[in-house]
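Changelog note: in this version the structure field was regenerated for every chain. One regenerated record is shown below for reference.
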Amino acid sequence: LPGQILDQWFESEPLKATLATDAVIGAMASPHTPGSGYVLLHHVMGELEGRRGAWGYVAGGMGALSQAIARAAAAWGAHIFAEKAVCHVLLGRDGRAQGVALQDGTEVRSKLVLSNASPQITFLELTPQEQLPKDFVQRIRQVDTRSPVTKINVAVDRLPSFLAAPNTRDGQPLPHHQCSIHLNCEDTHLLHQAFTEATHGYPSTRPMIELCIPSALDPGLAPRGCHVVSLFTQYTPSMLAGGWPWDEQARNAYADTVFDCIEAYAPGFKASVIGRDILTPPDLERIFGLPGGNIFHGGMSLDQLYFARPAPFYSGYRSPIPSLYLCGSGAHPGGGVMGAAGRNAARVALEDFRHL
């Protein structure tokens, strides 16, 4: 349990609760859920530019990272088909993957196919079911993909001014504006309470909020004097109590709850809002192909990690289909913008390619 780990090192409850958010980020779990301590470890392992456990902003926004990868691939001769949806994986008579078919009818032939889509999309939608072992298909169907996350992107006409550290007269970003700001995290019990509400089908009345202002470090993201605010919030169930859908009314009601919470810490925040984009779990699934809206392509619980990710006997990036590999967050070691699954899968695929 993360609470037991944090109790060994810290005395301050707000500090322990803030650190505990990394044990539940993106997970339908509370700091009191057994095994959630691993998620905390997952988020602080590794390093960034020599600093252990550090995270960073991508200059130009997260899309700039994808563009950098694309440029590097193109420099080595890769052909990139953007905005081209894949219909299914092409299989030869020997059962090997031989490329992919696009929805416009185009066939892209190759000796290897690597998929960074979720295991659910890769094996349940893009691969002929009769070519897969029944127990494997059942396992993929049973992966826990519950997600508590609603992402809210906000445009504001001035920096939030927090009661704990008010802005200076010149309106320039202060050190805390350039960090991750955690709200409603004064006590681990608050996090557990927010989780409990979601398990009963109700959005948290006092949500866990992680607030970032990337434009404080990267001014090019917003017009002069304005800023973009990224809100990573939870807990919101994928399906509301009574089977009610996430319609516009439900979306806006939850977003209003989040904004009311921020207003209590930073009066004037609501008046500074120019626009907002609300992405509930069903929205994240529909737009980005995240099963259940899960940013990790599946829960990071102990039964879905290491040799069991995405299924027992298939944690080494190879799939039941020869020459088809899984290289996204649904593969070992799981989610996070670190590229480990892709790098490992590429090495395995390259090894196999040399023997073709």
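Spot check on this record: DSSP finds eleven helices and twelve strands in the chain. The mean pLDDT is 94.
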